[in-house]
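Target chain:
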Amino acid sequence: MRAEWREVVWLLVAGLVLTWVSGCAPRISTEEEIKAVAAVVPEENYPLGPEDALEISVWKEPELTKQMVVRPDGKISYPLIGEVQATGKTVKELQAEISKRLEKYVVDAQVTVILLKPQQYKVYVVGKVAKPGEFLVGRPTNVMQALAMAGGVTPFASPSNIVIIRKTEGKDLVFPFNYNAVARGDSLEQNRTLIPGDVVVVP
């Protein structure tokens, strides 16, 4: 009987751990995720690049609604106007160019460009983790989630001295991260949402 209870307890603990790793608590709702995407990858500042997924539409012109991926050469092909350079432009800049080029074909064309999936949203985890490297993430990711993607810290790591390095306007900002404290449910503000280019360093 004791052995059976030990097995039940172990399964419960394992389930809780799996839930925590997959969600890397606290889990945020879909609505909050959408808001976080807007904050982390603002379309007005995000430079489009190869493999970014887009949706382009024109009001009252359903045949001009297209979903597409930016090609490796940085261009997209759109009906009526042909190839358009997308890489390096923001969503608003691409929208303005398409609108201008459509003028001769569609009167008062109201063009909308939506960034469906930013493929340039990459973060890096280096140091004493199981799988250090570059990680392409399709949604807002916090530090604990990034560490989970990297396979977790190794036994020889110093988890209380992790730092996040963020380059802003040519300067490096450094944020401390105490893995042990966050895992206990303390200092949760350190489990910040990463932005493209952030580097998590595990000493």
User: Anything to note?
Assistant: The radius of gyration is 22 Å. DSSP finds five helices and ten strands in the chain.
